[in-house]
Amino acid sequence: MIRCAVCDARVIESHFGAMVCRSCSAFFRRYVLTKKRRTQCSGENTCVINHNVRKMCRPCRMAKCLQVGMAPTRITDPIISKSTDKILGFMDNFPRLQNERSTVYGNLAKKQINFTTTTMIMEADYRISRSHIVRSFKEFFLTPKNNQNVLFDNFYTRLIVAESVFNVANSGTTQNYRVKENQETLPIDKFYLGEHKNTKLTDSQINILFEPFWMRGVTQVIKPLMELKLDFFEFTALLGLMLFDESYKGIDEECAKMCYQIRNIIFREITTYHSEKNNPCSKSFDRMADIMYALTLMEKARQLLSDQLTLFCLHKLNHNEQICLIFKETS
C-alpha cells in the first residue's frame, strides 16, 4: 500500500508532483497561498510529521512537502475549491478564533463564572464567531445577508451548547459545565446567586427551578457524547453540519440547495478522513452514524438552554435581551 510521502497516511492520488494524502495536499495549498504565515520552527526543525500527530509543526511539515517534491508552481487556482478542504480550513481558523476570544474575554477565562457573566460572554462571542464563519466558508460570505442571518442565528444557538458540551466531554468530568475551554461555571448552588433582584424567588427556589436542567444535560447529553469520543476533526464536521442545515426556516430555495450540497461535501470529507486513517469502511459508516447522533444530542442541549432562558424571562430574572431574542426566533 502506497503511503503519503509527508505524513505516512494512506495515499489516494498524486498531488502537486508527489504521492501525498489529501490532507497534506490541502495544507500545502493553503500554506503557499497564505501571505502571512509562520516560517520558522519553534523547535529545532526536527518535529515529527505523522498523520497520528494532532497538531503538526507547520514549517516542518512544509519543509517535508518541498523535500518530497511538491511544487508550489503547480498551484494555479487561488481559491480553495477542493471538497476535502471544507473541514480542514475550518479547523485551521480555530486558533485565530481562540486568540480573539482570549483578547475579548480577558481574565474571565481564568475564573469561575455565573449565569449573568455567561450571557455577557455569549453576546460578545456572537460577533467573534460570526467573523470566524465568514473567514472559514466563502459560500457563507457570498450568501445574501438575510440568509446569512438565518443560518448563523440558528447555528449560534447550537454552537453555544456544542462547544460547552464538547469541552466537558473531553475534560473527563461532568462536575462543572465549561462555557469555553478552561472556563468553568460555578456549581449549581452558586451559579444563579444574585439573579433574583427583580423577582420574589429566593436563591433556594431558583436552584430548585433550574437544577433539573443541569441534571438532564448531564444524563441526556454530556454522558452520551462522552461515549462517542469524537475527535476534533469530527467535532468540526459536526459544527459544519449544524451551520449548513437546509431545513432552517427563513432561508430561500437557492440557499437551501447550497446547504444541501455543502453537507454532502462534509459527509464525503468524513469518509475520506477515516479512509486516510486506514479505518475500514464499516468504521467510517459507524462514525458517520455517531456524528448524526451527536447532532440530535446538540439539538436536545440547545432546547434545554432555550427553556432555561424562557423561564428567566418569565420570572423576570436577569437575562441578556439579545441572546434571548436569538433563541426565541430560532425555536
UniProtKB/TrEMBL annotation:
Single GO cellular component term: nucleus
MF terms in GO: DNA-binding transcription factor activity; RNA polymerase II cis-regulatory region sequence-specific DNA binding; zinc ion binding
Protein name: Nuclear receptor domain-containing protein
Subcellular location(s) per record: Nucleus
Species for this entry: Caenorhabditis angaria
Stretches assigned to the Nuclear receptor domain: 1-77
Gene3D superfamilies, per database record: Erythroid Transcription Factor GATA-1, subunit A (3.30.50.10), Retinoid X Receptor (1.10.565.10)
Family: Belongs to the nuclear hormone receptor family.
Alphabetical list of Pfam families matching this protein: Hormone_recep, zf-C4
InterPro entries: HNF4-like_DBD, Nhr-150, NHR-like_dom_sf, Nucl_hrmn_rcpt_lig-bd, Znf_hrmn_rcpt, Znf_NHR/GATA
Domain of life of the source: Eukaryota
